[in-house]
Structures are given as structure tokens and as C-alpha cells.
Amino acid sequence: VIICEDHALVRDGLERLLSTHGFDVVASVTDPSAFLAKVKDESPDVCVVDVRLPPSFTDEGVRVAVEARKQVPGLPILILSQYVEQTYARELFSGGDGGVGYLLKDRVADPAQFVEAVRRVAEGGTALDPEAVAQLLGHGDGKGRLDLLTPREREVLSLMAEGRSNSGIAEELVISERAVEKHVSNVFWKLDLPASGKEHRRVLAVLAWLQAQ
Amino acid sequence: MIAMTTTETHFIPAASQPHARRSIAVLTSIGKDVLYLFAMFAMSIVGFVVWVTGLSVTAGLLVLIVGVPMWLVTAYVSRWTAGVDRRLAGWRRGRPIAAVYRQPQSSSLPARLKTITIDPQTWKDLGWLVINSIVGFAFALTALTATAVVIGYITMPLWWWAIPDPHTQYGTLNLGIYTVTSTGWAFVTTALGLLLAPLALLINRGVTAAHTGSAARLLGPSERQELHSRVEQLASTRSDVVDAADDRLRRIERDLHDGAQARLVALAMELGMAEEELASDPEAARVAVRKARREALGALGELRDLSRGLRPALLQERGLGAAADELARRSTVPVTVECTGPLERVPDPIGTAAYFVAAEALTNVNKHSEATAARIAIERVGGHLAVTVTDNGRGGANENGSGLAGLGTRVRALDGTLAVDSPDGGPTTIKAEIPCE
Questions:
Q1: Are residues A4 and A49 in contact, defined by beta-carbon separation less than 8 angstroms?
Q2: pLDDT digits (tens, 9 = 90+) for B285-297
């Protein structure tokens, strides 16, 4: 893992959190250029990057992530941010590939889930913050197709957009995996989405559809 | 007003000896009037010479080409003469009279000629010289004569005997009703002089006031011009204020992000890890909880500093004097605080601006000046609130540094001024003056 985070407290915490959960932190850097250099040298399995980085402390994290993925296609990157911005989410997921995550910094408070997200991204999956998903889903104006969904189907869609697998969704909602599968196929059918087996493919499909609204 | 006195604060009453002070002020004013009348008299003659020669030479030569440059010379000389009048009247009024002339598009002769000819102020200057050389001359002469007569009467006992023959025409001491032929009559004349003195002073005051007033009207910018420049000034201070507000918000957001928010993230992370480790490794969990508590305290501290920087509570609750005392107490460099005048009813925005001037200046004193002592003086005198911070440090403070520049914006937005005097080697004086009725 490579960590790119300019704030020392959070960086140290992330290092400890990830190493206690079996990750090997090969480098911790504080600015985008050092990050790009390390990505080349270390070829990490996954990167955790803060959105705000020097020099201008605005959206360097997003830009460096896009840049790094240009240099190393498919490089798994998890972006951490203080706020959820639709624009950034769109930029990150627009590539249509997996291995991308966009989470609020708050999520580190739940190490198990956070580590799960890192792992998912590392394996080429996706992790989108529930907050971002809520914003995306909240855009419905009352006339859209989202209103065709039952409340349960909406819940399933949200979790799917976050990047959860069917079994993950089943666990979260305390229902059987078969029930989840049924909901998922209903969602796909109602929203006119192409069915796809691979986890991140279907997330991206959901996202693409939501963003097109 | 002397509501409370701390060890560091010396409250000085607004006027320690009101009577003596007022007498001095009246005497100074009388003296200044007389001085002004002398200058006015002299300038009316200078003005006469200028306009008579200037206009006659120009008019005489206008048929030839030479008259054209002569006109330019006349205009510039009259401008200069009017400038002296302007400065004199400004001095007596206590408020300078601004000189507003149109600027030529280029420095070429035709351009200058055109600008100076169509500038209404050129004609107003000339008009002033003409009127002043007649009316101003007459009034100055009258007032000065009246003053001379009164002084002569009052001092009569000192010199009456020096006049060889009181009945001769020259140096006559025949006052109509009586002729001064003895010391007794001389003292009677003194009494008469004292009786007439208020009249002379009244004439002096009236002539001076009328003259400075008309100078301001004729030589100063017209109401339109004044409004124009006022609008320009307001527009520029307003945009400065908006910029400063934006900048402040950005800084606050940065402070929150780097400070409290980051600490809270770290805190949440530590607690999360502690929760996981609780069963397997209680010792590690305890360490994590301890760290979490430290982060929580750190976040509290940063939030506290941030909110104090936004709006000092003490200023609202106890006023400017108490807030300045608090600043002094928190300073590492020893600071004395002096408050003069009624500070309780200073309007909020003015008090806050004054407070931040003192706070920023003290921050600089502690950070950069290497001073061993500093002084804050807050005075509310004559419709102004003045805050002066001085130190004995090494000087070299930069007026355009972000802190001081921000203060300047704040003070100017309230129609005040901020002066920074900080030569290399010190000492540094930062003074803000804000109108405060």
C-alpha cells in the first residue's frame, strides 16, 4: 500500500490501521509528485490518497489519482475526502474501470468496514461512500425511474452502488442471498440496466446510469 | 468612566485640567486668526499682481502667437498662487482643501493648453484671485486695522509720551472725545481698548471664517467631484472588504480542515482500533484510547483558538479596555495599556477593528520584533478612536504583510487610517485612527 496524506496525525493512524490488518505499507508520502514517483518505483497493489494535498490544498488528490491511473492503467486507488463532491466522484469513476474508491474520511472510524473497502478496491472492485450514493439517489425529482423501485430495492441499489457484493448486501440487510439476487435483478430490469455478473461492472453500470440522470 | 483599574491600566481623564486647556485653545485660535489675516493680506496683493500682469500680458500678446504660451504661464502661476491660498485656508480650517485639476492626456503643449483651458478649476482659480485681491484685501485690511487700533489703545500708557506733540496731525492722539495728554488719559484709553477688544476679535474671526469658507468653496473640489471621489473610494474599500471576507473564510476553512477535523478523524480512527483490540489486546486498546483522548483535547483547543480569533468574547462582554488588558496579559513581551476617554460606547465594528489592530500588532511584537517592552494606547478624543501600539524592537515591519494589509482594509472600510512606522532597527509604531462620533 502507498499512502498519500499530508496530515501527519491521519497518516500515522492510517499506517497503523492498515498494518495491523495485514497490509504492507511500503511508502507514506505527503505530496502528489512524491506520490507519482513512488507509484512508479513500488508498483503498489492499492493506494490511499487524500483529496487535499499541497501545493494548493484543493483537489490535487483527485487529479493525481487520474494522472496515476493514466500512467499505470487499472492502478487501484482509494480517495479519502472530508466532503463528498459529485464532481470528483464522476471524474474518478468516469474511466469505467474498477479499482476505484471514494470515501469520506469519517469511514476510518470503522476499521473493519474501511479495511474491507480498501481490500475491495485492491481487488479491482469499487467503493463509493454511502453519502455520495445517497446524494446520487437523492437527485430523483419524483418522476424518474427510481420511483418505480420499492424501498427495499432502493436499499439494495444503494448498497450495490457502494460496491457491496450480493453476500455483503445480504449480510447488511439481514436477508438471504437469494432474496438479494431477486431484488438485484428487479432493479436491473426496472432501470433497464444490462445485467452483468462481475461486481464492479454492475456498480459502474449503476453509477453510469445514475449520473446520466 | 474609571469603572475599573487594573495594575497595567492607567485611565487618564479626557481633560485633566479642562479650564487651563480651554484657555490655551482660545488663545491659540486668536493668534492663528491674526497670523492668517496677515498671510491673507499679503496673498491678496500677490494675487493682484499675478492676475493683473498675467491677464494684461496675455491679452496684449494674444494677437501675436506669443500670447498663447503666456496664457499657459499665467494659468500655472495663478494655479500656484491659488495653491498657497488653498494651503493657508486648509491650515486654518484644520482640514486640507484638495486640489483637483484635470490631467492632460499627454505632456505636449497643445494637450496641456487644451486641458488647462477647459478645466473649470483654472477659471475658478483666476476668479478667486480677482475677487480675493479686492474683497479679501479690503476685509483683511479692515480686520488688521481694527486689531492694530485695539492693541494700540490697550498699550497706550507705554508709548503715548513718545509722541512729540499730541495735538499735531502726525501721530495724533486726538480720539475725538478727548486727547491723550496724561498717563491718566492713557489708562482710560486702555480701558476703551479692552472694551473694543471683543469687537476686533469678532471681526477677525468672522473675516477668517468667511475667507477660509469661500476658499474651500471656490478652490476646493465641487460637491460633484467630492461625491465622485467618495464613490470611488467606497467602491474600492468595498471590494477590499469582500476580498478580505473571502480570504478569511478560506483561512477558517483551512484551519478547520487541518486542525480540528483532522484531529477528529484521527480520534475516530483510534477509537475504532481500540474497539477492535479491546478483546484481544487490552493494553494496546488502552494506549489507543489514551491517544484518542489526546486528540479530542487537541481538537477542543483548536476550536477554542479558532472561535476566539473569530470574535473575542471579552470584547463583547467587557469592552475594549478589558479586551486590551487581556491581550496584554497573554503577551510574552511585557505590555502596558493606556486607555483614555469613554470606551464603553464605542460602536461594535469600530471596537472590533481597534481590537484586531492591537491583537495583530501584539502578535507581530511577540513573533518578530525581539522587543522587551510594548505599549498599547487607546484614545477616544475629538470624534476619533485611535489605537497606537509601540514596541522597542528591531523594526522592519512590512506594511503589506498579510496581517497588516488585512488590518488596513478593515480600518479603511470604516473611513479610518492605518499608519505603520517601522524603520530598520526600530522602534515600531502602528497607529490606527477611526472616526467614532
A1: yes
A2: 888 898 889 888 8
Cβ separation A10–B266 shorter than 8 A: yes
**Which H or E run contains B389?**
strand B384-391
Identify the H or E element spanning B433: strand B428-435
Which pLDDT tens digit goes with each residue over A78-94? 998 888 777 787 778 77
Element (H, E) at B76: helix B67-93
Q: Closest Cα to residue B51, out of B129, B107, B114? A: B129
Cell representation of residue B376: 498599547
Residue A109 with chain B: CB contacts under 8 Å = 268-269, 271-272
- Torsion over CA: B182, B185, B187, B189 (sign): negative
Q: Which helix (H) or strand (E) holds B3?
A: none
Q: Is B289 on the interface with A (CB under 8 A)?
A: no
> B interface mutation test: which of A52, A108, A115 has the most B CBs within 10 A?
A108
Which residue spans within chain A are E strands per DSSP? 2-4, 27-29, 47-50, 77-81, 100-104, 126-128
Q: How large is the ipTM?
A: 0.76
Chain B interface includes A174 (CB < 8 A)? no
Using left for φ > 0, alpha for ψ between -120 and 50, and beta otherwise, residue B107 falls in alpha
The contacts of residue B143 (CB under 8 Å, 6+ apart) are B37, B200, B203, B204, B207, B208
List the beta strands (DSSP E) in B240-383.
335-340, 374-381
Chain A residues whose beta carbon lies within 8 Å of the beta carbon of residue B265: 9-10, 13, 105-106, 108
What's the Cα-to-Cα distance from B161 to each of B156, B167, B171, B184, rounded to whole Å? 9, 12, 11, 12
The answer for B 203-262 residues in CB contact with A (under 8 A) is: 254, 257-258, 261-262
